[in-house]
Amino acid sequence: MAIKKYNPTSPARRYLTSLDHSDLSKVAPMKSLLQVKKKFGGRNNQGRTTNINKGGGCKQKYRMIDFARSKRDVLGTVATIEYDPNRSARIALINYADGDKRYILAPDKLTVGCKVQAGESATIEIGNSLPLRNIPTGQEIHALELKIGAGAKLVRSAGLSAQLLAKEGDYATLRMPSGEMRKIHLSCYATIGRVSNPDHKNVTIGKAGRSRLMGRRPHNRGISKNPVDHPMGGRTNGGKHPCSPTGVNAKGLKTRQNKLTNKFIIKRRVKKK
Predict the structure, then answer these.
(1) Separation between Cα atoms, residue 143 and residue 129, nearest integer Å
(2) DSSP strand pairing (76-82 vs 115-116)
(3) What is the residue-averaged pLDDT of the chain?
(4) What b-and-e string marks burial along 187-199, b requiring 16 or more CB atoms within 10 Å of the CB?
(5) Closest CA to 91 of 66, 74, 125
(6) What is the number of alpha carbons within 13 Å of residue 59 lying toward its C-beta?
(7) DSSP state of 249
(8) pLDDT tens-place string over residues 140-162
(9) Nearest to 70 by CA among 25, 103, 26
């Protein structure tokens, strides 16, 4: 998938880029796999604004994705490769041999007409899903389960992949896209290959109006606000560390609460320089 550039007919279009969608299937999404998606505009269940930078945007419908790949040992054929407004990756509509149809995350280089399968007997081919114990070490994988049978929770964004490094006992050691190394049970399922749409990170939004269509409202720096609106307001931070409008530290504050799974993390993610 290539990046499209535009002639600078206006200052906004000078640096604007977008993805070339010529490789996507020219079909409407499957109606039986759509759900209504409500917008909350950054409000909680009490109607109070908890995120002032959300709101607006285009209407969307949610595509139901089979993250668990629960259709085991049934051969499926890729019918379409489609755009999904709810995620950065592409999705693929699979027509199974028994007549069932489901959406899955589309791996990179998966094309219409390819055969995919999930189960312990599946082969090591792009798009196939099988337990970690049946995947050879060194293989690129995505859509990882964190708990057995809970469905894919890790490595689902565009262009990402994890690497299976070793197997020992009941657990496999994997290198995550962030550089973190952690253990996951060998009975957890994963999909072969890298997630589709690797050029997603190279797109330049180019203008503010395009952000508003995505549901992103303008974001102001805390120091540019009044003291009544932000702890760092009033043209000075008052000696305070960078923080959110509610006073929570924005840099260096550890937010991880689940200490029970620390034993599965061998090495923390690589720190950005």
Answers:
(1) 9
(2) antiparallel
(3) 94
(4) bbbbbbbbbbbee
(5) 66
(6) 2
(7) B
(8) 999 999 999 999 999 999 999 99
(9) 103
pTM for the predicted model, two decimal places: 0.91
Rounded CA-CA distance 230/227 in Å is 5
Q: Are 77 and 114 in contact (CB under 8 A)?
A: yes
Q: Are 69 and 118 in contact (CB under 8 A)?
A: yes
pLDDT (mean) for 241-247? 89
Q: Which residues contact 69 (CB under 8 A, 6 or more apart)?
A: 104, 118, 129, 143, 152, 189, 191
Interacting residues of 31 by C-beta distance below 8 A, sequence separation 6+ = none
The Cα angle at residue 44 between residues 41 and 45, in degrees rounded to 5: 120
Cα dihedral sign for 264, 197, 38, 100?
negative
Distance CA 159, CA 156 (A): 9
How many CA atoms are closer than 13 Å to the CA of 116, on its beta-carbon side? 34
- Picking from 153, 135, 131, the residue whose alpha carbon sits closest to that of residue 144 is 153
What string of H, E and C letters represents the secondary structure of 132-163? HHHCCCCCEEECEECCCCCCEEECCCCCCCEE
Residue whose C-alpha is closest to residue 141's, from 173, 111, 115: 173
Average pLDDT over residues 220-239: 87
Residue 1 is predicted with a pLDDT of 65
* b/e sequence 10-48, b meaning 16+ C-beta within 10 Å: eeeeeebeebeeeeebeeebbeebeeeeeeeeeeeeeee
Distances (CA, A) of 196 to 85, 96, 155, 251: 14, 21, 11, 32
Partners of 189 in beta bridges: 131
